[in-house]
C-alpha cells in the first residue's frame, strides 16, 4: 500500500472533520489540491463509505453509509506543505495521531481492510436464518410480532414466518431483513 515517490513515502492518513461535513471537506480539499498545484504530494481524498441494504416500508433499498463518521482518508506524502494544506482546509479539526501536530499514518493492513469495505458489494447479503428459527418481526404491518420460520428462499432473500393471529398460525411472507433472531 505504501509507495515511494520522488517526494517521499506515500501513505494514508485519517483526518478528523466536523461531524456531517465529511463530503464538504473532501470537496474543499480536492479544490485546494488543484488550486495550489499540490497534486504531486496529495493523491487521493476518500470519505470511507460502504453499501448496505435496508428495508423501508417492506422494500429493499441500497444505501451508502459512512464507515467512520467524522473522518476522511487522505493518501499523501507528508511534508510541511501537504500537512499545512490539509490542516488548514475548512472544517478540518486535525490529523489522527497522538497529538494534532504529528500525523500518524494508517497501517497498510488497516487501509487494505477499509478499501475492501469501501469497494465491497452489498449483493453478497447472506440469509442467516433456518426453518424452525424463532424470530421477531422488526418492520412492516406485523412489527413486534414473534413467529417461527417455515420457509427460507435464500436466492430472493425471502422467508415465511408462522405468526399466531387470532389464535391460529398464519403464514406471513417477509424479506429476511425484516426479522431478527430471538
Low-confidence segments, given as residue ranges, are none
Helix and strand composition category: alpha+beta
Task: Specify the number of helices.
Answer: 3
Give the number of DSSP strands. Answer: 12
| Major sheet summary line | 5 strands, antiparallel
Helix content: 10-25%
Q: Taking all residues together, what is the mean pLDDT?
A: 87
What form results from the Cα inertia axes? Answer: elongated
The separation of the N and C termini measures 42 Å
State the order of secondary-structure elements, H for helix, E for strand: EEHEEEEHEHEEEEE
Per DSSP, what share of the residues sits in E-state strands of 2 or more residues?
Answer: 35-45%
Radius of gyration: 23 Å
Report on this model:
- The protein has helices spanning 22-35, 80-87, 108-119, and strands at 3-5, 8-17, 42-46, 49-56, 59-66, 71-77, 92-95, 134-137, 146-153, 158-165, 168-175, 179-181.
- The chain is α+β, with helices and mostly antiparallel strands and 182 residues long.
- The strands form three sheets. Strands 1, 2, 3, 6 and 7 form a five-stranded antiparallel sheet that branches. A five-stranded antiparallel sheet has the order 11-10-9-8-12, with no helix packed on it.
- It is elongated and about 70 Å long.
- The two termini are 42 Å apart.
- The model has no long low-confidence stretch (mean pLDDT 87).
Amino acid at each position: 500500500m505504501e509507495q515511494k515517490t520522488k517526494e517521499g513515502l506515500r501513505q494514508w492518513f485519517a483526518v478528523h472533520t466536523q461531524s456531517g461535513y465529511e463530503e464538504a471537506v473532501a470537496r474543499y480539499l480536492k479544490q485546494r489540491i488543484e488550486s495550489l498545484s499540490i497534486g504531486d504530494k496529495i493523491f487521493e481524498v476518500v470519505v470511507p463509505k460502504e453499501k448496505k441494504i435496508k428495508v423501508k416500508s417492506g422494500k429493499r433499498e441500497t444505501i451508502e453509509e459512512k464507515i467512520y463518521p467524522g473522518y476522511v482518508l487522505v493518501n499523501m506524502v507528508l511534508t510541511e506543505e501537504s500537512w499545512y494544506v490539509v490542516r488548514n482546509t475548512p472544517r478540518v479539526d486535525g490529523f489522527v495521531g497522538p497529538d494534532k501536530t504529528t500525523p500518524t499514518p494508517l497501517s497498510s493492513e488497516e487501509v487494505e481492510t477499509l478499501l475492501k469495505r469501501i469497494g465491497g458489494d452489498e449483493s453478497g447479503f447472506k440469509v442467516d436464518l433456518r426453518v424452525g428459527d424463532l424470530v421477531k418481526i422488526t418492520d412492516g404491518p406485523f412489527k413486534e410480532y414473534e413467529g417461527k420460520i417455515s420457509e427460507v428462499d435464500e436466492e430472493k432473500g425471502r422467508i415465511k414466518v408462522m405468526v399466531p393471529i387470532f389464535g391460529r398460525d398464519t403464514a406471513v411472507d417477509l424479506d429476511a431483513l425484516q426479522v431478527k433472531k430471538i
